[in-house]
């Protein structure tokens, strides 16, 4: 078994993985999902009272931290807008492993456990890439410590962008580390969104700056640049850089020369050049050209069984409830309750899974004989006053079709089960052991 200590933001992204599995998402989505479902993990910098984490969907704070974690995948149509699409890692392996129980999270340690060496390596690689992106995002600090690098951050004009001016009146804009595209981790992909998006390029003649990391140092591989004149014909959004040969190509196989910063300072055009090319350029047209897929406007809601498996079972199918050992949990056919608990003695108990207690009535289960003597789990805390308001009258009308055993998880993640005596409208807690 392998144990991997994770950066806080990576742990948080993995802990909410089932909410965006197989869905389009970006930094805004992850910030909203984190606040909705994992608020106890969100305020990771409590010492900074003005540092917006809770309910933060603007750049900086939680959203800014997710931006140093995610891999940019492309542009997708969402409603009437074309927006960024992201993933955690270069593919879906990590998210699938979380959802399938191949990676188990320990919330007390902010660590991950796995028996799979490849998954261990993937987790360590994503943690390292996050460190690279975070360090390179603080390029102003690096320049202040290295006076020999002839660049100055233009914070006054570009507060939210890593834009730099040389003493030769050239402008550079930092490209963002994306992910490795090969299994040997020698070809590192960068995205050039910072260069192309918006109207910056119309106002200034920018060249993309590329910082190559080493395993030991996010800045150790040197500072390089691409000449924008080489990019105008193809306008690539993604560039693959071979860390060994220092050669680069776009996804279509077009090659581009990678210049050292020293050579770029000598050869590259200044801030007021390429006026015709910049006037002819349109980010709106480029977005349409690269936009691939139309996706759901909302992040899809996690299915009820995934919620139950993650929140209540904690990826385990064996537990004891009310002194009876559950040996398996099986999904059963549609038209009735969602799952069946199989007890060690061979008896079975049907269990309905809902996002909220109200949903049980919304779905009409109180009028369906298939739900007679069913138990219920909901992704909602057990509040008996609320339970009574929802079910008390229906219990009198529909008797056994209203549950008397309720499974729930509290805000701290503790699992509980309760048995309600509807005749006297009182309840008792049932012991649950894992």
Describe this structure in words.
- With 434 residues, the chain is an alpha+beta fold.
- It contains 17 helices and 26 strands.
- The chain has a nine-stranded mixed sheet.
- The protein has three domains: 1-132, no CATH class; 138-283; 304-433.
- Helix 17 (384-398) links the parallel strand 22 (375-378) and strand 23 (405-409).
- The protein is elongated and about 85 Å long.
- Helix content is 30%, strand content 27%.
Question: Any chance you could write out the topology, listing elements then pairs?
Answer:
Blueprint: E1 2-5, H1 8-15, H2 17-20, H3 27-37, H4 39-42, H5 61-67, E2 71-78, E3 81-87, H6 93-99, E4 103-106, E5 111-114, H7 117-137, H8 139-145, E6 151-153, E7 163-166, E8 171-174, E9 176-180, E10 187-191, H9 193-196, H10 200-203, E11 206-211, E12 223-225, H11 228-231, E13 238-242, E14 248-250, E15 255-256, E16 259-260, H12 261-267, H13 275-280, H14 283-290, E17 294-295, H15 304-312, E18 319-321, E19 324-331, E20 339-343, E21 348-354, H16 358-362, E22 375-378, H17 384-398, E23 405-409, E24 415-421, E25 426-430, E26 432-433
Parallel strand pairs: 2-17, 8-11, 21-22, 22-23
Antiparallel strand pairs: 1-5, 2-3, 4-5, 6-7, 7-8, 9-10, 10-13, 11-12, 12-16, 13-14, 14-15, 18-19, 18-26, 19-20, 20-21, 23-24, 24-25
Helix pairs in contact: 3-5
């Amino acid at each position: 078994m392998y144990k991997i200590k994770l950066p806080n933001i990576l742990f948080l992204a993995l802990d909410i993985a089932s909410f965006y599995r197989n869905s389009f998402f970006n930094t805004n989505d992850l910030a909203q999902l984190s606040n909705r479902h994992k608020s106890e993990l969100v305020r990771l910098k409590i010492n900074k009272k003005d540092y917006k984490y809770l309910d933060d969907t603007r750049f900086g704070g939680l959203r800014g931290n997710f931006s140093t974690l995610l891999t940019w995948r492309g542009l997708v149509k969402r409603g009437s807008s074309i927006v960024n699409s992201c993933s955690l890692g270069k593919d879906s392996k990590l998210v699938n492993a979380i959802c399938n129980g191949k990676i188990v999270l320990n919330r007390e340690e902010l660590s991950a456990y796995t028996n799979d060496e490849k998954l261990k390596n993937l987790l360590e690689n994503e943690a390292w890439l996050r460190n690279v992106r975070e360090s390179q995002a603080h390029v102003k600090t690096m320049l202040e410590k290295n006076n020999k690098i002839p660049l100055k951050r233009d914070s006054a004009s570009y507060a939210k962008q890593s834009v730099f001016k040389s003493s030769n009146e050239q402008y550079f804009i930092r490209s963002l580390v994306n992910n490795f595209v090969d299994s040997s981790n020698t070809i590192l992909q960068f995205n050039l969104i910072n260069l192309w998006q918006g109207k910056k390029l119309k106002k200034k003649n920018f060249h993309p700056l590329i910082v190559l990391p080493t395993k030991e140092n996010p800045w150790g591989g040197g500072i390089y640049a691409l000449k924008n004149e080489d990019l105008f014909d193809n306008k690539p959004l993604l560039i693959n850089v071979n860390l060994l040969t220092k050669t680069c190509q776009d996804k279509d196989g077009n090659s581009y020369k990678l210049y050292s910063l020293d050579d770029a300072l000598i050869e590259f055009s200044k801030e007021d050049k390429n006026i015709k090319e910049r006037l002819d350029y349109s980010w709106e047209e480029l977005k349409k050209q690269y936009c691939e897929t139309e996706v759901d406007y909302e992040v899809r809601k996690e299915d009820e069984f995934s919620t139950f498996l993650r929140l209540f079972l904690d990826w385990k199918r064996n537990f004891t409830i009310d002194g009876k050992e559950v040996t398996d949990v099986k999904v059963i056919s549609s038209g009735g309750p969602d799952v069946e608990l199989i007890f060690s003695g061979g008896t079975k108990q049907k269990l309905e899974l809902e996002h909220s207690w109200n949903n049980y009535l919304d779905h009409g289960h109180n009028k369906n004989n298939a739900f007679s003597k069913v138990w219920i789990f909901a992704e909602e805390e057990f509040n008996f006053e609320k339970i009574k308001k929802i079910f008390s009258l229906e219990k009198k009308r529909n008797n056994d079709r209203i549950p008397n055993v309720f499974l729930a998880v509290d805000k701290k993640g503790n699992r509980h089960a309760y048995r309600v005596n509807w005749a006297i409208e009182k309840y008792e807690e049932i012991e649950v052991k894992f």
